[in-house]
Each structure stands twice: as C-alpha cells, then as structure tokens.
Amino acid sequence: MLRPPRMRDARVWSEIRIRNQQWLEQWEPTSSAPWPARNSPAAWRPMVGAFRKAGRSGQMAPFMIVFGGRLVGQISVSNIVHGALRSCTVGYWVDSAAAGRSVVPTALAMVIDHCFSVIGLHRVEVDIRPENAASLRVVAKLGLRREGYYERFLDIGGAWRDHVAFAVTAEELKGATMLSRLPSLPIAPG
Fold this sequence. Notes:
Helix content: 25-40%
CATH class: Alpha Beta
CATH superfamily: Gcn5-related N-acetyltransferase (GNAT)
Radius of gyration: 16 Å
Distance between the termini: 17 Å
Largest sheet: 7 strands, mixed
Shape: globular
Number of helices: 6
Strand order of the largest sheet: 1-2-3-4-5-7-6
Order of helices and strands: EHHHHEEEHEHEE
CATH architecture: 3-Layer(aba) Sandwich
C-alpha cells in the first residue's frame, strides 16, 4: 500500500532509517549532519512540512510504502514538470528487512500508474547509480528502458556519482498499467 506521509510516522521512520544506516547511507545525498541527527524523529517534522508544501505546489508527490501492515519505506515523485514536458523523477528506499519481496517493484509500478493516470504525466524517470544492483533489478523487473548515462550527476556520499537513467512513457504501456507488468504481487510477511 502507498499512502501520504504522516507526522505520526516520525518514530517508526527514524527507527527504520537508523537501523538501516549501512544499507541506505551509501545511496543518500551528501550531508554535513551525522546520520542519527538527520534521521531522528525531530528531523521528520520539517521534512513532512517540506513534502506537503512541494505537494501543494504540484512539484512533488511523496508516499510511504506499507507492507504487511507496517511502514517499510518511502517513494517520492519529484521534479514534476507540467506543460510540454509532463515528466518527473522517482526515488525510493526500503527497509532491508523488506528487500527481495517485490515491495519496491510493486510500489514503483503503482507510482508510475499514478503519475500517468492521476497526475497526467507523460514520462517517468528513475536514476540509479550503476553499482546499485538491487535498484537495477527493480527497473529490470518492470521493463523500464535505459535512456542514458549521467556522469558526475549527484553528490552522494561525499562525491559526484554517475547515474544510469531509466524511463517509461505512457505510450510504452499501450493502454495497460505498469502494475500489470509484474508477474505477481508480493506475498505478505508471515
């Protein structure tokens, strides 16, 4: 399930992020703040405020990923551009305990469908570091097209990192949904 972020997510969000520091930090933007500080419950409130403001202006659509009745990650549609381009980029992270269960491919498929059907976009892009094997598997499962290679694209972990660009346009789905590209939905944790 995808849902908007809530202020009351602070404690659970922080617990997941702190516990998954080694799993997540290598893919996160460079920051001068230490991991525990920027992922504390106190850091959540201003982040949700920024999400809501960007959402109201139509620049972003943030979602929390819920699996088996519990919060397990986050997926955000950002850099939304309307007009002639009608495009966006999507970024995500997931608790390592939920990895490998098709949670992220399912969430990404749902978000892409939302972008095309509700937001009215034409193109969705996902940018991935070439060494991020888990995320490369996500876009492969959904059949996203490799579109380009960005050298020194984002400041991640203290250095400018290359990214591979993957994209899909509404026409590529030929009237189907992205969710229908998945062989099956994930099995709830037992």
